[in-house]
# Entry
Amino acid sequence: MKSKRFCGLKPYMTCVLLLVSSLSLAASDEPVLTFVTGDMETGFYHSPQQTGLIDDLLGLALKRMGYGLRILTVPTERSLKMTAAGYADGEMLRTTAIESHFPTLLRVPEKLVDGEFVVFSHKLVDLNEGWQSLAGKSVGIVIGMKMIENKMPASALVTKVKDKKLLFTLLKRKRIDHAVFIRDTGQFYLYKNNIKGVFVNTMPLDKVSGYAYLHPKHAALVPQLAKTLKGMKQDGSFEMLVKQHLLPTDTVNLERRP
# Structure
């Protein structure tokens, strides 16, 4: 009997295989690794043109190792299933919360970014009790963001959506009162879409580190990629790329009054 975990994957896997096969026919001097990412990352960390922060950091690291990088964007939950099934070489950016659900994926131990899960809302929220501050409240979250799913209070009135566009659309239309999301990615989305009237609460619910993950078939690359990322931090190239992606300073008012 086939596992329900992988139901619905076949159309995506077929597209991935066709894409990889067709691109492999093009002349290239380097092997290309295909990473997948959930659509929650599109924007600050990843762009369709592959010019986001993590696109650049991973791209440079792999280039130094002699590899090209291709990143495919799929629904957040599906990206993990694709990588676990071996239809992608790696997962672009995840927290350690995925490891209990997908234990075969191998974390590259050198972190890519430190992130914060924060509450976006129309009014400032008292978050002194952390995640429990959301008990009984109307909250929107993106399906597949495991840490948020795991930490949400049982009494919270949770609305699960497929991506951040729908998340912030519901918040803007006041269909939900609170949205829990990554600070950098959410703030970038508000800035790029000129969305007003939303608070970015400064107190984080959690601070987490984001890592790349590889399928077990690439176990030998894990220490090599970690070493390369560490070398980039030591030679300044890592920090240089981070600075290039900082938002304009006038966006800090998003954290105060709209």
Q: What stands out?
A: The two ends are 53 Å apart (CA to CA). Residues 1-7, 16-27, 249-258 have pLDDT under 50 and may be disordered.
